[in-house]
Design brief:
Elements: H1 4-9, E1 14-21, E2 29-34, H2 49-60, E3 65-72, H3 84-110
Parallel strand pairs: 1-3
Antiparallel strand pairs: 2-3
Length: about 110
């Protein structure tokens, strides 16, 4: 993520960040709420989801509801395909995201 993403996410009520993790998280598919909090990064132009939200709140007075969907990655080489294990987890993550979006659509439809 870069600082430019703060402007983009400021236009939305809900945002999901999807990422791969190396196993530092116990669950193979980890989902957690994300809240605005500036975090220092060793890369000056890269932001965490928390920092991106913090910038969106500071600059645009926007605070969308956010979640991080983190999928366990098993092979981080220069490949065009996911490992079989990560492919299964990615499908589970996509299903979760699809269900969340459909739920929001239904809620808005019912209003």
């Amino acid at each position: 993520l870069t600082p430019d993403h703060a402007e983009i996410i400021a236009d939305y009520d809900y945002v999901w960040f999807v990422d791969a993790h190396t196993g530092r998280v116990p669950e193979e598919l980890h989902i957690e709420a994300v809240f605005p909090e500036f975090q220092n990064s060793p890369f000056t132009h890269h932001f965490t989801p928390q920092s991106c939200l913090s910038l969106a709140r500071t600059l645009y007075h926007a605070e969308p509801t956010c979640e991080l969907i983190s999928v366990r990655g098993y092979a981080f080489g220069f490949e065009r395909q996911l490992s079989p294990e990560t492919s299964v987890l990615s499908n589970r993550a996509a299903t979760y995201l699809y269900e969340q979006i459909n739920h929001l659509i239904q809620l808005r439809h019912d209003e």
